[in-house]
Specification:
The structure is a single chain. This protein has helices spanning 45-56, 72-75, 79-97, 115-124, 143-150, 169-174, 199-220; strands at 2-12, 15-24, 30-35, 59-64, 105-111, 131-136, 156-161, 181-186. The radius of gyration is 17 Å and the shape is globular. With 223 residues, it is α/β, with parallel strands linked by helices. It starts with a strand and ends with a helix. The chain has 7 helices and 8 strands; from the N terminus they run βββαβααβαβαβαβα. The longest helix is centred in the last third of the chain and has 22 residues, at 199-220. Strand 3, helix 1 (45-56) and strand 4 form a beta-alpha-beta unit. Residues 37-197 form the KANL3/Tex30 alpha/beta hydrolase-like domain.
Length: 223
């Protein structure tokens, strides 16, 4: 059985971050921190099925449901300040929610804009230790995200479609130079990892992505 906690963390008067924490009644050693995209929430298929996948393998899940697009103060900021804001929002939730826990392994599962705070954590290591990253449709055209993956010293899985408007073949191909980074390019898939106009092909793509995620997770799960 699972306990489900839905609440929010108040970082300051301008930033209130909702979250959902799903954990087993019996303590687990691992947790997956989920960082959604701006329009691709944790209720969408990639996150919904991944949540079930992690829970089935005794990995708790913390979904951080930030809402940057609804925050007028956030929209006014320059890019560098937005990056810091995103990172601070994620960090404060992780630190507050998990402060009395004893997790040994942290998976960070981020999509699209979620790769921005992931990239900053990869360089700063500010809120988790022993991290493993799953990067769905990372914003590799943005230098910070690309360089974080290229120079990653944490095991990382990068999944991206070759029809994604953020896809850059040259940059993605160079990720193979890092032995800790595993790359899966989904043929004909867009930024939602769906095949435009083909429902059944999209379902097959989703299945393959989940298989890759499961294989990667099991490779680095501590038991």
């Amino acid at each position: 059985m699972y306990q489900i906690s839905e609440a929010q963390v108040i970082r300051n008067e301008f930033s209130i971050i909702p979250y959902t924490w799903i954990r087993s009644d019996k303590p687990n050693k691992s947790i997956c921190i989920m960082l959604p995209g701006l329009g691709y929430t944790t209720q969408r298929p990639l996150f919904d099925y991944a949540t079930g996948l992690f829970l089935n393998h005794q990995v708790d899940v913390l979904q951080i449901n930030y809402q940057f697009t609804k925050n007028e103060r956030f929209k006014e900021l320059p890019d560098a300040d937005q990056t810091q804001w995103m990172y601070d929002d994620v960090k404060v939730v992780v630190v507050e929610v998990l402060k009395n826990t004893n997790y040994e392994q942290f998976f960070i599962f981020g999509k699209s804009i979620g790769s921005i705070p992931m990239a900053k954590e990869w360089s700063e290591k500010g809120f988790v230790q022993n991290a493993v990253g799953i990067w769905l449709t990372p914003l590799v055209k943005i230098d910070n995200a690309y360089e974080a993956l290229l120079n990653a010293d944490h095991p990382s899985l990068c999944v991206i479609g070759d029809m994604d408007h953020h896809f850059n073949e040259e940059k993605v191909s160079t990720l193979k130079n890092n032995p800790l980074v595993y790359t899966f390019i989904v043929p004909d898939a867009d930024h939602s990892l769906e095949i435009g106009g083909d429902i059944f092909a999209s379902i097959e793509a989703l299945k393959e992505v989940m298989k890759r995620v499961e294989d990667f997770m099991m490779r680095y799960k501590p038991y």
